[in-house]
Design a protein that fits this description.
alpha/beta, Rossmann fold, six-stranded parallel β-sheet, two-stranded antiparallel ribbon, 9 helices, globular, AB_hydrolase_fold, AB_hydrolase_1
Length: 235
Amino acid sequence: MNDSKRPQFLLVHGAWHGSWCWGEFQDVLADRGWTSHTVDLPSVVAEDSEGKLPGLLDDARVIREKIDAIDAPLVVVGHSYGGAPVTQATPGAANVSHVVYVSGFALDEGESLTTCFGGEAPDLATVEGVIPVRENPAFTLYNDVPEDKRDAALARLLPQTALSFAEPVSQAGWKTLPTSYVLCDDDQSLPPAYQEPFAAHCGATYHLPSGHTPLLSMPDKLADLLEQIAHGTAA
């Protein structure tokens, strides 16, 4: 592939995480000759954060600013919650060649993380504060991650703003862009039955025998798949 046309990757982390979680995976991509970028979503905040805090639309703005600043074709990868602001950020982005959801929330217009499985939409004007890291993250997020990497990740998790889960998307990039879904078959946070409705929004679905966070548990296998998607050879 001509280097001028070779896509780069924009990797978007999920709730409670930061760009740090992609570090090892970026090294794997770099060893294979791929350029990758990350963002830090503003909805991941300090322990003592209070009041009106950033939401999903703020995350989407940061992602779109990053997309617009990169002068190259982009494969945008949204992991878990990160798929939601990616959905909002990608419509109309001329340099986005593909969107990949990794156990991600490929929401429809008007949906939020709060409502996508039947929850009631809150009054956004009253939403404030944070959502603590979910119960038993060693199992729900990292059930197949090696112990040393799991413990290092657990030590870096931070609260997520309540508004990021409550705020709906107003547009959906998967409706107009090529999209793929990586369904994680042993996911204890978003089990396959909950991933499948999001996968149905995408043009292709691929499976990994992983828990919720394959970027930590099987980075080489995830890189294999993303390379194939970027090359248009995934089957």
